[in-house]
Amino acid sequence: MSDLHRRADDMAQTLREKLQPSLLEVIDESASHAGHMGATAEGVGSHFRIRIASPAFEGKSRVARHRLVYDALQVFIDQGVHAIAIDVL
User: Fold this and answer.
1) Dmax of the chain from CA atoms?
2) Residue 76: domain span
3) pLDDT-derived band of residue 7, with 50, 70 and 90 as boundaries?
4) How far apart are CA 21 and CA 44, in angstroms?
5) Domain count of the fold of the chain
6) Residue 48: what are its φ and ψ, rounded to 5°?
7) pLDDT digits (tens, 9 = 90+) for 11-65
């Protein structure tokens, strides 16, 4: 399995470690973005949807919750993840 194929699992592990979510889904939507800017030739590893609920979000605004997720995943963004859609539950 290539690094791009493992990326969703690695992202999920990082979010578990940093935010201890009560609910977490990391969905690779890259195939739906084929031909778009930032898409990979393999059709994986570039565009993700994160569905997450975490006690770390309590009392925080939507923007602050998203910032926590982005900050936790910054290393992946630096490594070429092009887009992350976040659904805070």
Assistant:
1) 41
2) 3-88
3) very high
4) 24
5) 1
6) -130, 155
7) 999 999 999 999 999 999 887 756 665 555 555 678 899 999 999 999 999 999 9
**pTM: predicted TM-score of the whole model, two decimal places:** 0.86
Quickly list DSSP for 12-31: HHHHHHHH--SEEEEEE-GG
43 CB-contact burial (10 Å; exposed 0-12 / middle 13-18 / buried 19+): middle
Q: Give the C-alpha separation, 15 to 82, whole Å.
A: 18
**What local confidence, expressed as pLDDT, does residue 30 receive?**
84
How many whole angstroms separate alpha carbon 80 and alpha carbon 63? Answer: 23
Q: What is the CATH number of the domain that holds 56?
A: 3.30.300.90
